[in-house]
Amino acid sequence: MHVLQNRVVGECRPVVETQLGTPKLGTPKLVNMVCPCKSLVLVTGWSALTYLAYRLIRALYNILYPFVIATPKDLKELAGATWAVVTGSTDGIGKSYATELAKKGFNVVLISRDQSKLENVKAEIQEKATNVEIKTIQFDFTNPNLADYEERIVRKLNELDVGIL
After folding, report:
1. Which pairs count as long-range contacts for 29-32, CB under 8 Å and 24+ apart, including other chains?
2. What CA–CA distance (Å, rounded) separates 122 from 155?
3. Is this model's pTM higher than 0.90 or not?
4. Alpha carbon of 11 to those of 28, 38, 88: distances in Å?
């Protein structure tokens, strides 16, 4: 049977172990440090480790989810229609959008200022996506006249089932 000596609540002190019935010979064996703040330190440490583990798992999830876990949604189903309208479609981002939408199976309406560029882009897109219909509308959006806008664009788009603008 063992007896723990020198245990004082409220102070950090070493606990000494001796055996009952035998005289103390030599130095006693140091067993443990008793400290009331020990549990606070342990709880704080484990809480910090748990939080760091959570943040690491969350970061990995955010990185992997879009590429490994998630399944892509059907854009045509989400749009609810077969036509997409792309303005500024003869250069840069507009041209890229029009090309990608055509590859996804959307019929595309290209709107831009220059009719010759529109025809070039139309031919380019038809080479990459042969099963789609492509219409072009030449319009300069710097024109502030609302009647021109309604006549050239709105009237033509009202005839189509547009899902993406």
Report:
1. 31/4
2. 21
3. no
4. 20, 11, 76
**pLDDT, tens only, 77-98:** 888 888 999 998 888 999 999 9
| C-alpha–C-alpha distance, residues 165 and 161, integer Å | 11
**What is the CB neighbour count within 10 angstroms for residue 95?**
20
> What residues have CB less than 8 Å from 116, skipping those under 6 apart?
none
- What are the pLDDT digits (tens) for 96-137? 999 999 998 899 999 998 899 999 999 999 999 889 999 999
Q: Considering only CA atoms, give the Rg of the chain.
A: 37
Kindly provide the residue ranges of all beta strands, DSSP E only, lying in 9-161, ordered along the sequence.
13-19, 29-34, 83-87, 107-112, 134-138
Residues in a beta bridge with 33: 14
- Please say whether the dihedral angle defined by the alpha carbons of residues 45, 51, 55 and 57, taken in this order, is positive or negative: positive
> 144 with 118: CB under 8 angstroms?
no
First to last CA, the chain: 84
Kind of pairing between the strands at 29-34 and 83-87:
unpaired
DSSP helix, strand, coil percent of the chain (3-state; round to 5) = 45, 20, 35
